[in-house]
């Protein structure tokens, strides 16, 4: 799975989850995170993708995590997630030609 392919799948799934109704970032974040912290881990992302039928490699997860961690602090906090959840921010992650 390439990074762009994985990002397209995440966007498609996000659109499916929204499904004509407004799904809040809080609910989406809580659907992915498994720990009690206010951060997503690589393990959370791997489990979410695997549970939804994807088989990403560890390199895929590392690359995706790095792209989504806007402040490059090694953590994917709720504030980072809100930036990627917003359509305008998503457009900066996935180039238009790749959608």
Topology (elements, then pairings):
Elements: H1 3-18, H2 25-32, E1 39-40, H3 42-51, H4 58-68, E2 76-77, H5 78-85, H6 87-93
* Terminal-residue CA separation: 15 Å
Question: How many distinct beta strands?
Answer: 2
Please state the structural category: mainly alpha
Helix and strand pattern = HHEHHEHH
Estimate the global geometry from the Cα principal axes. globular
Oligomeric state of the chains present here: single chain
What is the name of the CATH topology? Answer: Recoverin, domain 1
Q: What is the spatial order of strands in the main beta sheet?
A: 1-2
What percent strand? under 5%
Which CATH-level-2 architecture?
Answer: Orthogonal Bundle
Number of domains: 1
- In round numbers, the mean pLDDT is 75
Question: Spans with pLDDT under 50 lasting ≥5 residues?
Answer: 88-99
The CATH class: Mainly Alpha
């Amino acid at each position: 799975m390439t990074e762009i392919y994985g990002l397209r799948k995440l966007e498609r799934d996000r659109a499916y989850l929204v499904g004509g109704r407004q799904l809040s970032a809080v609910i989406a974040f809580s659907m992915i995170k498994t720990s009690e912290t206010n951060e997503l881990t690589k393990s959370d992302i791997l489990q979410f993708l695997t549970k939804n039928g994807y088989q990403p490699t560890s390199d895929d997860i590392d690359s995706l995590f790095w792209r989504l961690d806007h402040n490059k602090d090694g953590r994917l906090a709720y504030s980072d997630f809100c930036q990627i959840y917003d359509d305008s921010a998503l457009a900066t992650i996935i180039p238009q030609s790749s959608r």
